[in-house]
Specification:
- The protein has about 250 residues and is α/β, with parallel strands linked by helices.
- The protein has a single domain (about 5-240), classed as Rossmann fold (3-Layer(aba) Sandwich), CATH 3.40.50.720.
- It is about 45% helix and about 15% strand.
- It has helices spanning about 15-25, 45-50, 65-80, 105-130, 155-175, 195-205, 215-230, and strands at about 5-10, 30-35, 55-60, 85, 135-140, 180-185, 240.
- The protein has a seven-stranded parallel β-sheet with strand order 3-2-1-4-5-6-7, sandwiched between helices.
- Helix 2 links the parallel strand 2 and strand 3 (about 55-60).
- The longest helix has 29 residues, at about 105-130.
- It is globular, with a radius of gyration of 17 Å.
- About 40% of the residues are buried.
Length: about 250
C-alpha cells in the first residue's frame, strides 16, 4: 500500500484500460482523479462504480490546452500534489483508411489527442513533480508504435511519437527523481477493439500471440501499479511490452 496522501491523475479513464488503472491505483491507496470527455450526466453509468470507490472525475478533453490546464489546477486545489500521471487518453481514427486515402483532418485529430495532448500534459505535470522532487509518469502507448497497420497509419504514427516523447522526458526528468515509462499493450479486450473481436479471436486461435489469449485491462493496470510503487525506479525510460509475446519476431 502506498501513502494514502499520494495522488494519481489518469486521463481518459471512464472505460477500458484507464478505468482498470484508476481502480487499481485506488486499491493501492492513492487518491485518484480521472478525466474524460463526457459530461457527468452522460457518463453517470460509468461513473457510478468509480465514484463508489472514491475516485473523482473531471470533464476534460486532453487535446484542448485549456481543459488540460483546468484539470491539473483542479487536482492541485483538491490535493496540492500529483505523484503519478498516467497518460491513457487516446483514440483510433474514426474511419480506417488506407494511408493513400488518409485525410488531413483524421491525421490532425488523432495526433492531437494521442500525441500532442499527452506530451503537453506530461510537460505540465512534470513541472509540479520537479518541485516535489518525486513522481512517476506512465504513458500507455501501443504495439502499434512498432507494428504497422496500413489502414490506420495516423494511429501508428501517434503511438511511435509517444514512444520518443517517453525517452525524451525520461532523460530530462531522471535527475529530478521522476520516473518516466512506456507501456505498450497488444491486443486488449476493450470497447476500442470490440469491432474486431471476431478477427482477433481467429488470429489468436491461429497462433498470432504466444500467450494465446486476449489481454485484459487489468494486465495493464498491474504493470502501472508496479511502476507507480517505485519498485522499478532504476528502469528510467523502460518500454514494457504487455502483449502476450506478440512483439517477438517469429519465422
Amino acid at each position: 500500500m502506498c501513502n494514502a496522501e499520494k495522488v494519481a491523475l489518469v486521463t481518459g479513464a471512464l472505460r477500458g484500460i484507464g478505468r482498470a488503472v484508476a481502480l487499481r491505483l485506488r486499491a493501492d491507496g492513492y487518491q485518484v482523479v480521472i478525466t474524460g470527455t463526457r459530461s457527468p450526466e452522460a457518463a453517470a453509468g460509468d461513473l457510478a462504480g468509480l465514484e463508489a470507490e472514491g475516485i473523482r472525475y473531471i470533464r476534460a478533453n486532453n487535446k484542448v490546452d485549456a481543459d488540460r490546464e483546468r484539470a491539473v489546477q483542479q487536482v492541485m486545489e483538491w490535493f496540492g500534489r500529483i505523484d503519478v500521471l498516467v497518460n491513457n487518453a487516446g483514440m483510433a481514427p474514426r474511419e480506417r483508411r488506407d494511408i493513400l486515402e488518409m485525410t488531413p483532418e483524421s491525421y490532425d485529430e488523432v495526433m492531437d489527442v494521442n500525441c500532442r495532448g499527452a506530451f503537453f500534459m506530461t510537460q505540465r505535470v512534470a513541472g509540479i513533480m520537479a518541485q516535489q522532487k518525486s513522481g512517476c509518469i506512465v504513458t500507455i502507448s501501443s504495439i502499434s508504435a512498432e507494428a504497422i497497420s496500413l489502414n490506420r497509419g495516423e494511429y501508428c504514427m501517434s503511438k511511435a511519437a509517444l514512444s520518443m516523447a517517453t525517452q525524451l522526458f525520461a532523460a530530462r526528468l531522471a535527475p529530478l527523481g521522476i520516473g518516466v515509462y512506456e507501456i505498450r499493450p497488444g491486443v486488449i479486450e476493450t470497447d476500442m477493439t470490440s469491432g474486431v473481436h471476431d478477427k482477433y479471436d481467429a488470429l489468436i486461435e491461429g497462433g498470432l500471440i504466444p500467450n494465446p489469449r486476449w489481454g485484459k485491462p487489468e494486465d495493464i493496470a498491474n504493470a502501472v501499479s508496479v511502476l507507480a510503487s517505485g519498485a522499478l525506479a532504476y528502469a528510467n525510460g523502460q518500454v514494457i511490452q504487455l502483449d502476450g509475446g506478440l512483439h517477438i519476431p517469429q519465422l
